Amino acid sequence: ACCIQLHIIYTLSAMFIPLIFLSLCPTLVSSTTGTVVVSSGNTLKVHSEPNTAANTLYSLSNGATFTTSCYTIGNTVTGSQGTTDKWDQINSDTYGVGYASQAYIALSGSLPQCSSGDQYTGEVVVSSGNTLKVHSSPTTSSSTLYSLDNGAIVPLTCVTSGDTISGSQGTTDEWFQIDSTGYSTAAYLKRSGTPADCSSVPPSNSTFQMALDYGMKNIGTLYVGCAGGDYRFGKVAPYDMWHDGTTCGQSRVYFQPEGSVGFDCSGLMVEMFDAAGIYLPYQSSTAIKDNVPEVSKSSIQNGDMLAKYGHVVMWIGNNQVMESTPFTQNGDTSWTGTRINSDSSYMSSADYSAHRYPGLY
């Protein structure tokens, strides 16, 4: 567009050039070409954040070229071009904004740092061997969703107040919402800046976020098994109930006390989609595996499901999944089921395949 505007400028009197240029083309962004330099047979992953643990959007082959206008700071990576914490921002019509480490990119020229705008990151600073817990709310007594390793770079959505904690960054009652999924104390996060207060951040219109929010609200609810009927879709038990899993291939009878909420693995998937306004017609892990379109694990995205015959989970980014599985038995013999878990066993197992049902973004 600016090329056309410049042509018009030069057909007019020179005295108007500065005025027209400033009004029609206020910002000219130069681009630099990047060339992927990886060893034979390998690819360079483009992530959703400047972090090797973030969601992989797609991959670039050795020798592939792209244009980039800026870099941002993220995880330190060592590659063919040296050791660096710089990540090039790459815009894709298909995948949106992504980031690739400069450790494997040869640039045709200099590149400025991206304007941070309102986007801030935090670097985890804990002692060797320790991790930083991400909680469901800004208190240490709330459930732990997952943990972050020392040096991890995470996006800070907003800041709020909670328990007062003393750590590597001082003593504070500030807690950051991490990538819209949970909360960690600011006492162990070295920030690039301070994000907006959580009370002023508008709710996300992402359907994936709606599904995730539903799952998060149900962390710690019960597992009721495949014989749970309507109660495996989060229906409150009107009285003490026993669901006989031996009638559908499981080895236990699952107790659900009066007033409690429970799921089985596929019931949780159905309800997470429903919370986003999407009807998932396949209501067992087998039906999901057999009927929902399969995608490559290397291109897995938020909201995709990892399924085998007998279990299904939802991939939620940051190498994590949301699932309902009987992992802890309670004193009343019921089983706690809904949790966030590592994706490692699901991603590495040939039994599990990735499936994408349309609608979550």
Structural features, described:
There is one protein chain. The protein is mainly β and 361 residues long. Helix content is 14%, strand content 39%. The chain has six helices and 25 strands. It has helices at 2-11, 17-24, 207-217, 265-275, 285-291, 344-348, and strands at 32-36, 43-47, 56-61, 65-68, 71-79, 82-92, 96-101, 105-107, 120-124, 131-135, 144-149, 153-167, 170-178, 182-185, 189-191, 222-223, 241-244, 253-256, 262-263, 294-295, 305-308, 311-317, 320-329, 335-342, 353-355. The strands form seven sheets. An eight-stranded mixed sheet has the order 19-16-24-23-22-21-25-20. A five-stranded antiparallel sheet has the order 14-13-12-9-15, with no helix packed on it. A three-stranded antiparallel sheet has the order 4-1-8, with no helix packed on it. Helix 1 packs antiparallel against helix 2 (17-24) and helix 3 crosses helix 4. The longest helix has 11 residues, at 207-217. The chain is globular.
